[in-house]
From TrEMBL:
<comment type="similarity">
    <text>Belongs to the EMP24/GP25L family.</text>
</comment>
<protein>
    <recommendedName>
        <fullName>GOLD domain-containing protein</fullName>
    </recommendedName>
</protein>
<feature type="signal peptide">
    <location>
        <begin position="1"/>
        <end position="17"/>
    </location>
</feature>
<feature type="transmembrane region" description="Helical">
    <location>
        <begin position="186"/>
        <end position="208"/>
    </location>
</feature>
<dbReference type="InterPro" id="IPR015720">
    <property type="entry name" value="Emp24-like"/>
</dbReference>
<dbReference type="Pfam" id="PF01105">
    <property type="entry name" value="EMP24_GP25L"/>
</dbReference>
<keyword id="KW-0256">Endoplasmic reticulum</keyword>
<keyword id="KW-0472">Membrane</keyword>
<keyword id="KW-0732">Signal</keyword>
<dbReference type="GO" id="GO:0005793">
    <property type="term" value="C:endoplasmic reticulum-Golgi intermediate compartment"/>
</dbReference>
<feature type="domain" description="GOLD">
    <location>
        <begin position="27"/>
        <end position="128"/>
    </location>
</feature>
<dbReference type="GO" id="GO:0005789">
    <property type="term" value="C:endoplasmic reticulum membrane"/>
</dbReference>
<dbReference type="InterPro" id="IPR009038">
    <property type="entry name" value="GOLD_dom"/>
</dbReference>
<keyword id="KW-1133">Transmembrane helix</keyword>
<keyword id="KW-0812">Transmembrane</keyword>
Amino acid sequence: MQMLTFLLCFGFPLSTAFYFHAGEREEKCLIEDIPSDTMVTGTFKIQQWDTGRHTFLESAPGLGMFVTITTYNGEVILSKLYGPQGTFYFTSHSPGEHIICLESNSTRLVSFGGNRLFVQRIHLDIRVGEHDLDAAIAQAKDKVNELTFKLEYLIEQIGQIVKEQNYQRDREENFRMTSEDTNSNVLWWAFAQILILISVGIFQMKYLKDFFIAKKLV
């Protein structure tokens, strides 16, 4: 399993779009640092290599993509098989890093210079804290008009920004408390060492004094 790391810790909705190449049943994973109660949308598309044209085809019929979403403590949020292109959604239940893994279900091989290889290009677009505005408008058109819905969309994004800012504030507070605890422990340990040294010195002086008196040297 290869890991692609993207730590998303900003105070605005983010979109990460890129593509990568994968071999036969090769799993690719990436890490997203997500606040709690945040919706994440992922859109992917598989392109198959055409040996005749020496390029990637726009579509890859017959291929499938297995998507797995887990938290770092092993909780499985999503595990589903899709077609050659699709969109997956999930909502984080707790803040922290989430692992998004994609694996093709194809075993078809192509030939390169006598070596048989499986080559595909996977386009992936990850949106954190965003919703599909057009789809949501279509679902809500019987209840509210487009202008009202867009206003609600903006209010939702403002709430998302506040939520992410609070998440960052909590992270900074935890880091500050950890630093203060560490400094306090170091200070107390230094103080204990000084007390031990002073006690040993007093004991040695008293022992030597008693020794000299016993030997009538003083």
